[in-house]
Specification:
alpha+beta; four-stranded antiparallel sheet
Amino acid sequence: MRRQTGSSEWGEKTAIRELTIQYSIGARNQRAVLRRFFRRHVGRRVRKQIYLYSGGAWNSTPTIDRKFIYDGWNLVLELNALSSDAVLEKYTWGLDLSGQAGQHWGSDDIAGIHNAGGIGGLLSIRDVGTTTSLMYFYNANGDVGQLVKNSDGSFGAKYQYYPYGGETQAVGSYASVNPFRFSSKHWDGEQQALYYGYRYHKPKLGRWLSRDPLQEDGGVNLYVHAANTPTNVADSLGLAPCHGGGCDKSGVVFIAQIPPPGIGSWVAGCKKQIIIKKRTEKECCDQLPPIDRGKDYGGVICCDGRKVACAWYDDKPIPDKCKAALAQCTIEHEKTHLDDINCGCNDGIGVPTRPPWADPSPGNTSYQECVGACTSARCLEAALKRGVPAGCEDVVRDHLDQKRDRAEKECKGYVPPEGC
């Protein structure tokens, strides 16, 4: 019987989060505590300790103390902290299920090693203590099916699974020793759960053990695994189900345009986009500079599923203290264009994009620019009335004159906006 309780606490001045679980391991007086440590800013597990309860008290020294070293989310080394961080296991990774097409939207990763969360990409394990090396073999879903010894080609382990990752067969001398199994994920024997990175999955329950980090934005069921259809959908890191389109490590999860069986019509028109962490507007603008910094002061871009008005003044020969007022008024200009452009289904995901004008007459953007120039002129006038930093009055007035000239030019033949 396994009864467990848990607590999770953050250190005030540390980058490590600790999760402690107490569980029974047999008779009533046999208990253990599992302590796991996670990197605060990423969430990766970096250490695991196990303490036993005996003689009416908890042992002060852990029975097991392991540290984990990663490449991205792929585990490459396990170290024994009880023996001066001696290496216990080494793991070698290759292309995962994202394959040669695994590199997305400006990613600096080697194509296909990380973009399916490593599923199906683990090539081999080396047990340093016994100097045994084994190769991994998979089914089409990236579940470990067999381990074969390099030395003689014999089987070290064989596995078969039911849909949510529980094992219907696990045989061979390395079947219990090997930690990577269903979905190429690390098996936590103490908790009887699979470690996906962001969350733990309990095969016997068919669900996650913690809530969706995206809360209800990821669906009303915060614990559902693979949209309750694990034979059709995968979840590489415990964030969201992926099907066909795959997962992009930039923080955006793509779901296939055609819904998988049993899910219904939750995808309509475009691929569904779940933004795990949206960039700030400044981060979006900084990632996509203007086409011509010598001429372009502002523009509208598509970034993380939304339209962003940008102003670029970093390299302009203008005193830094004056740039804020100018940039704000340029942004007000660009905001008048938000309704005139269209961001496509996937525009701005990964790397921001410049959307096309939606004006029915291609190339005829005079009226839009008329409205924009009038808006920025009014903004600059208001800034002068409020007061600008000392020494910036002439710079702001110069830009105001430019905007007035631009408005007069662009508004010819149109009824100008009120106040222009």
